Amino acid sequence: MGKYGRGMVLCAVLVLLAAPFALAGRPLETEDTGIVEPGAWEVEGGLGYGSGNGEKAWGSEVAIAYGLVENVDLHLGQSYVIDCEDDGCHYQGFEDITLMAKWRFAGDDESDVAAALTIAGSFPTGNRSEGLSSEEIDGSSVVAVSFALPQDMALYLNGGYDALQNADDVYFLSAAVEVPVIDSVALVAEIAYNHSADGNRDDKSTRALAGATFEVNENLVLDCGITVGLDNRTPDIAATVGATYAF
To answer: Which domains does the chain have, with CATH numbers?
Structure first.
C-alpha cells in the first residue's frame, strides 16, 4: 500500500516523524540546506501523535545521518506506527526504511543564500501484513533553498516530488521560518502543501506547524511541534517531540 493509501491521520504523523521521505531537520517537514560535516554523525529520534475524523495515530522514529564528503551527507530512517479508529487499531508495525542522499550544490553554512538537492528511496522492509509497506521501491526528490534574514532568522523553501509505485505520485511545496529568541531557543513555523499528480482533490493536504528547538549543548538539541490541518482533508491536529544528537 502506498504512503498516501492509508488514513490521513497516520500520514500526518509520518510526516511529523520525517518519514518515509522527508528526513528534514526536526520538527520541520521542510528540508534545510545544512550538511553534516565529513566524518561526523547525527542521530535523531521522535514521538508523534495525530487525531481527527475519528482516527488516532501514534508513531516513533529513529534516523541517522553521516557526513560523507564536503557538501554531501547520507540519511537512514525507520519509523514504527500505530493507527486506530473507533472500531480498533488497524495498522501497527514498522514502516519501510528510507535512505536519502543530500547534496548542497550552492553556498555554505555562512552564505546568505544556499541550495541543496535530496534524492531518497523507500525500500520495502515494512510490515506487509499490516499494510505498512509499499512492497515496491519508491523514490523522492526535493530542492531546498535557504535564505539568511536579519537578526539571525532564516527562511527555507522546498519543492519536491514523490514517485510512488502503488499510489498516485505526489508533488509538494513548503516554506518554513526559524526565529531565534534567546541563545539556546528558536521558534519555528511552517506551511506545507501536497497534491496527487493526477489532480485528485481527495489527495490534497494543507497544514501548518508551530514549534520550537532548545539547544541543550553543542551536541544535543530538543524539539517540539504542533501541526494543524488547514482543510477538511487534513487531520485536525498532530504533535511531535524529539531530540537530535551530533557526534
So the answer is: 8-246 (2.40.160.40)
